[in-house]
Amino acid sequence: MSTAAEALAPAVPGRQVYDASQWRLMGIAFRKHRLAVVGTVIVALGYTCLAFAEFLAPYDPARGAYVSPLQSNQLIPPRLPRIVGTDGGLTWPYVHPLIETRDSVTLRVTYVEDRSVSYPIRFFVRGERYKMWGLFRADLHLWGVDGDTRLNLLGTDQKARDVFSRVLWGTRISLSISLLGVLIAFVLAIILGTISGYYSGLVDTVIQRVIEVLASVPTLPLWMVLSVAIPQSWPLERVFFAITVILALLSWPGLARAVRGKVLALRETDYAIAARLDNGSNRRVMFVHVIPGVMSHLIASLTLAIPGMILGETALSFLGLGLHEPVVSWGVMLQDAQQLRTILFAPWLLWPVAPVVIFILAFNFVGDGLRDAADPYKS
Q: How far apart are CA 371 and CA 265, in angstroms?
C-alpha cells in the first residue's frame, strides 16, 4: 500500500490517496496512462457516432446521388472544402460543384470543378429525412452544403453513395455487435468461471475440458462454419443477433479461464471464509463476496476482448458470410474492395479499414490502462 500510495501521491494532493478506495486508486492510475486516456476519448467518440449517426452523417448511406445519365456521381474521389477565396484570402469553407466528364480514349469517368459557382458549407442544415433511432422522423444534419451539390469527404462508391456517411453508419453496427457480443461472453464467463473456480472437483474438470476443446479449434474457420448455417431467408435483424451470439459463444472461454484463476485465489481469503462460516450460501458467497474482487480485472479483460469481436464481424462480413446489404457495417463496405480493379481505380473504398484499425488500437490502449490500474497496490 505504501509503495503504491507514494507512486500515486503526486496525482492527488495531501493524504487523499492514502484514504482512497480501490476504484479511486484505479482512476488515478488510469489517468496517468496517456495512451489509455487517448483511447478512451476515441472510444467515446465512436459510441457518440453510434448513437447519433443519423444526425452526424450528412447523407443517406443507402441512397446514392444519381442525378442523370450525364451526372451519375459514381466513384467521386475524396475532396476537402476550400478555405481560400478567389482573392487569395481566407474565407468561410465552400465547395464547387462537379462536372462529370469521360476520357475519349480510356472511357474513364473523371470529375472537374466548376469554378464559376461556389456553395458554402453550413452547420445544422435541413437535408435528407431520416428516422432517428427508428422512433421519430427528422431532417436536421450537423452540416451540409447549400445549393444542388455535395461534399463527399471520403468519395463515393459504385452506387454513388457517400463513403463518409456509410463509415459513420458502419460504426453503429460494428461497435454494437462487438459490445453486445462481449456482454454475452461476459455473463457466460462470470457464471461458468466462478462456478469452475469455486467448486473445483468434477465441475471444474468438465468446464475446463470444454474450454480447452473450444480453444483448440481455429476461430475463423469455426466462425465461418457457424455463419454458413444461418438461413439466407432470415431477416437482417435476426442475422444481426445470430452473428452476435456466434461471436460471443466463441469468445467466453478466455474470459472464463481468467475468472476461474481469480476465484481460486479469492475463495480462500479471510472474508470469503468468514462469509461461509456465517452460514452464507454458496451463491451468496460467490456473487456477493468473491465476484466483486474479480470485477476490476474482468473490466480490463472485457475491454481487451472487444477488438476480437470487431475483427470477427469485419472478417465474416468481408467474406460474405456475415451481414450483407442493405446493412451498413465496415465489413460489408469492404466487400466493394475485393476486386483488384476496384482498388486500383478507387482506392478510397478501403477507407473502412481505417476505423477498424483505429478502434482496435483504442480499445487495446484502454484495456492496457485498465489492466495496469486494476492492481493499484502493486509495487
A: 18
